[in-house]
From TrEMBL, chain A:
<dbReference type="InterPro" id="IPR037069">
    <property type="entry name" value="AcylCoA_DH/ox_N_sf"/>
</dbReference>
<dbReference type="Pfam" id="PF02770">
    <property type="entry name" value="Acyl-CoA_dh_M"/>
</dbReference>
<dbReference type="InterPro" id="IPR036250">
    <property type="entry name" value="AcylCo_DH-like_C"/>
</dbReference>
<protein>
    <submittedName>
        <fullName>Pimeloyl-CoA dehydrogenase small subunit</fullName>
    </submittedName>
</protein>
<dbReference type="InterPro" id="IPR046373">
    <property type="entry name" value="Acyl-CoA_Oxase/DH_mid-dom_sf"/>
</dbReference>
<dbReference type="InterPro" id="IPR006091">
    <property type="entry name" value="Acyl-CoA_Oxase/DH_mid-dom"/>
</dbReference>
<keyword id="KW-0285">Flavoprotein</keyword>
<dbReference type="InterPro" id="IPR013786">
    <property type="entry name" value="AcylCoA_DH/ox_N"/>
</dbReference>
<dbReference type="InterPro" id="IPR009100">
    <property type="entry name" value="AcylCoA_DH/oxidase_NM_dom_sf"/>
</dbReference>
Automatic annotation (TrEMBL), chain B:
<dbReference type="InterPro" id="IPR046373">
    <property type="entry name" value="Acyl-CoA_Oxase/DH_mid-dom_sf"/>
</dbReference>
<feature type="domain" description="Acyl-CoA oxidase/dehydrogenase middle">
    <location>
        <begin position="124"/>
        <end position="218"/>
    </location>
</feature>
<dbReference type="InterPro" id="IPR037069">
    <property type="entry name" value="AcylCoA_DH/ox_N_sf"/>
</dbReference>
<dbReference type="InterPro" id="IPR052161">
    <property type="entry name" value="Mycobact_Acyl-CoA_DH"/>
</dbReference>
<dbReference type="Pfam" id="PF02771">
    <property type="entry name" value="Acyl-CoA_dh_N"/>
</dbReference>
<dbReference type="InterPro" id="IPR009100">
    <property type="entry name" value="AcylCoA_DH/oxidase_NM_dom_sf"/>
</dbReference>
<dbReference type="Pfam" id="PF00441">
    <property type="entry name" value="Acyl-CoA_dh_1"/>
</dbReference>
<dbReference type="GO" id="GO:0005886">
    <property type="term" value="C:plasma membrane"/>
</dbReference>
<comment type="similarity">
    <text>Belongs to the acyl-CoA dehydrogenase family.</text>
</comment>
């Protein structure tokens, strides 16, 4: 039993900490979010140069040979700085699909672009009627000679305004919610027939609504076997859940630190408000919620390669924990900061907003509770 | 004990329901859901009710009240919530108005009450300061008497809609040597007086609702003092008691739960309505039960009030439970809309062509949730309300 980090992992954390500490303070982040593009391409290039985008890929694929723990370390630091750049979308999700399901040709064609920071990806899976059910797909891909023709509509595709490439789930057979018949495709965002409407999200990111109208893709666009994509989608989204858990831990850690600091210095009735027992106990509960979230985050990141049932329980369990803890810590951090916590000026509200959105990504507490309780 | 309406009450209900149906502007609701309203738009319903003579049902008849019974006032609030009418601004009608007719002199009543009723004068509340939030009595804004006026210096914060205000009712310290609560006075300040600066505060939902107000050598005529010098804390507490009971928002919450249920009916989980799932329907049921309890608690408070008991420390129950319920409704509404909770509805200067993704009912649900976190902070934080009940009700 050992929960310590290797020397290389500590070095990775130091690298990202010093980069973000120097170049991603809250004011810089605010400017990035308010810019026309909504993200920082130069920052993304720095991520690439420092090897952050290569961290979780094997050396054979041109990466640094890390895995989920490296991703966890990066995501926690990204959470601390509320990084908006699409690491989860590009490296964890698209990178994950290519790494675990892609053919050698697909890997060769696409992974270098991810590692080098040249290509940004987004994952177009959610549909208006589907809520959090990954198999509930009205988008279809019909066999068309050697390739496929895709038609459909995808909702709230995070990071899509910045992406050149999309991973798209579509139904190649079966009924709308069947487990069988789900296929995964690589689609160029600028392919004829792809139309997007971009918009900002409440946590300072960007997303798109995407319509696919008779998009022609070749057979080489299919990841894995036709109609057998759902288990891979579940596996990769569980990896994304593990990454988001770490991000949430980063957010909660910062909120707790800020709240304790504030309560030590903010005086009312002649004493620091942190002297009031009711607030002390509240902060202790926030601290425990954070510690429990750290534990579940370690656990899920260590269990991503277990069998499906184990992995499902680990991911669903972690998502429930961070969903509940994120809500509690976020709400109470705002409450204990009083009016200041409500302002756009202070970072507290921004962490709270991000935590709130993390809960909705890949299924909220209710969805994951159900998933946990029905996992074999 | 009887909780049912009499035939007269039912007739009254029909009358006000018809009035609202015939007089509430149809387009107001749609304008409200997109972006911020103009100053004049915010006052639309107020002005209509003023013409009808129904703008202050809770005031004594001699000052413009309607003379309605407690039940009739309850019905009136219900019907407004049912029709989702604009909420009236509380600063004049619910806050400073009653202070003026209760503690002001005849001259002040004549001077200020008509503008409150007609909405020709917009009021804001100068209470909180950067160093005086929960500990309101710790306020430091100084008013020094010089001949026939006061000179006011200080810094107010969280002043709601001060950007539109013509006047501010302001708590100021007039005796620096007295105990905290005893050196405070209640002053009415014309916002056009030289030395006043209003600076916006943008909240995390992107809205500009609150402000900072800086007062620098502001000359306020002594005749704008309400009641006695150094007795302002009494008037301030009277006002806060009124504020707290209004804060319960039971009727509005009922309507909001109806809306939540319709959203949860439209939203699907595996092809069937979210509201049909065990988890979600239980959460909504729990919320409705909490609200029912609060409704009857409020009715009990109102009944006691109609027998002469003013809003006492029990009003703190209404504030705590009312705001918890309001927050829970927005939380569940955000939960109900699923992925479209991410969408930000633009605020500020809009071109009108902004794209807002998702069904209309999902628009702004996250921002609304974020915004409503303020309710457990303002009007005396919920922690302070717990203290009030512990001390004043339980005698701890």
């Amino acid at each position: 039993m050992d929960f310590s980090f290797t020397e290389e992992q500590t070095l990775l954390r130091n690298t990202v900490q010093s980069l973000l500490g120097d170049k991603y303070d809250f004011d810089t982040r605010r400017k990035i979010v308010k810019s026309a593009e909504g993200w920082s391409q130069p920052m993304w290039q720095q991520f690439a140069e420092l090897g952050l985008l290569a961290a979780p890929f094997s050396e054979e694929l041109g990466g640094l040979g890390g895995g989920s723990i490296e991703t966890m370390i990066l995501m926690e630091e990204f959470g601390r700085h509320l990084v908006v750049e699409p690491f989860v979308e590009t490296v964890v999700l698209a990178g994950g699909f290519l790494r675990e399901g892609g053919s050698p040709a697909q890997q060769e064609a696409h992974i270098p672009g991810i590692i080098g920071g040249e290509t940004v990806w987004a994952f177009a899976y959610a549909e208006p009627q589907g809520r959090y059910n990954l198999a509930d797909l009205a988008t279809t891909a019909k066999k068309d000679g050697e390739g496929y023709t895709i038609n459909g509509y995808k909702a709230v595709v995070l990071g899509a305004p910045w992406a050149q490439k999309l991973i798209v789930t579509a139904r190649t057979s079966g009924g709308q919610r069947d487990r069988d018949g789900v296929s995964i495709f690589i689609v160029d965002k600028n392919a004829p027939g792809v139309s997007t409407r971009d918009y900002p999200t409440v946590d300072g990111r960007r997303a798109s609504e995407i319509t696919f109208e008779n998009i022609k893709v070749g057979a080489d666009a299919l990841i894995g076997a036709e109609g057998k994509g759902l288990p891979l989608v579940e596996k990769i989204t569980d990896q994304a859940i593990a990454a988001l858990s770490a991000e949430a831990v980063g957010c909660m850690g910062e909120l707790n630190k800020a709240t304790v600091e504030y309560c030590k210095t903010r005086k009312q009735f002649g004493v620091p408000i942190g002297k009031f027992q009711v607030l002390q106990h509240r902060m202790v509960d926030m601290f425990m919620a954070y510690e429990q979230s750290v534990s579940m985050t370690y656990m899920v990141n260590l269990k991503l390669d277990e069998n499906e049932a184990e992995r499902t329980k680990a991911a669903a369990g972690a998502k429930v924990q961070i969903g509940k803890a994120g809500r509690f810590v976020g709400q109470q951090a705002v409450q204990l900061h009083g009016g200041m916590g409500m302002t756009d000026e202070l970072n507290v509200g921004h962490y709270f907003k991000r935590l709130t959105m993390i809960d909705t990504q890949f299924g909220n507490v209710d969805h994951q509770l159900k998933r946990y309780s029905t996992a074999a | 004990m009887d909780m049912s309406f009499s035939p007269q009450d039912l007739a009254f209900r029909d009358e006000v329901r018809t009035f609202i149906a015939e007089n509430y502007p149809k387009d107001l609701k749609s304008r409200r859901t997109r972006g911020e309203m103009t100053k004049e738009e915010i006052l639309t319903w107020h002005r209509i009710l003023y013409k009808k003579g129904w703008v202050v049902p809770h005031w004594p008849v001699e000052y413009g009240g309607t003379g309605w019974t407690t039940t009739q006032r309850y019905i009136w609030n219900e019907e407004n919530a049912r029709a989702e009418t604009q909420a009236l601004l509380p600063f004049g009608l619910a806050m400073v108005g009653p202070v003026i007719y209760t503690f002001g002199n005849e001259e002040q009543k004549k001077r200020f009450l008509p503008g409150i009723l007609s909405a020709d004068v917009w009021w804001c509340q100068g209470y909180s300061e950067p160093g005086a939030g929960s500990d309101l009595a710790g306020l430091k804004t100084r008013a020094v008497r010089e001949g026939d006026h006061y000179v006011v210096n200080g810094h107010k914060i969280w002043t709601t809609l001060a950007q539109y205000a013509d006047w501010m009712f302001c708590l100021v310290r007039t005796d620096a040597n007295a105990k905290a609560q005893e050196g405070i006075s209640f002053l009415l300040i014309d916002m056009k007086t030289p030395g006043i600066t209003v600076r916006p505060i943008i909240t995390m939902d992107g809205a500009h609702e609150v402000n900072e107000v800086f007062l620098e050598d502001v000359k306020v005529p002594a005749e704008n003092l309400i009641g006695e010098e150094n007795k302002g804390w009494t008037y301030a507490k009277f006002l806060l008691g009124n504020e707290r009971s209004g804060i319960a928002g039971v009727s509005r919450s009922k309507k909001a739960i109806e809306r939540l249920k319709s959203i949860a009916t439209a939203e699907l989980v595996d092809g069937s309505p979210l509201l049909k799932t065990d988890e979600f329907s239980r959460k909504v049921a729990e919320l409705e039960i909490d609200l029912t309890a609060l409704e009857v608690t409020e009715l009990r408070t109102l009944a006691a009030e109609s027998k002469g008991a003013g809003p006492g420390p029990e009003a703190s129950i209404l504030k705590i439970k009312g705001t918890e319920i309001q927050q829970r409704i927005t939380e569940l509404t955000l939960e109900a809309v699923g992925n479209y909770g991410h969408v930000n509805v633009p605020t500020g200067d809009l071109t009108g062509n902004e794209f807002v993704a998702g069904p209309d009912y999902s628009n702004g649900s996250a921002q609304n949730y974020f915004n409503m976190r303020k309710t457990s902070i303002y009007g005396g934080s919920n922690e302070i309300q717990h203290n009030i009940i512990a001390k004043m009700v339980l005698g701890l």
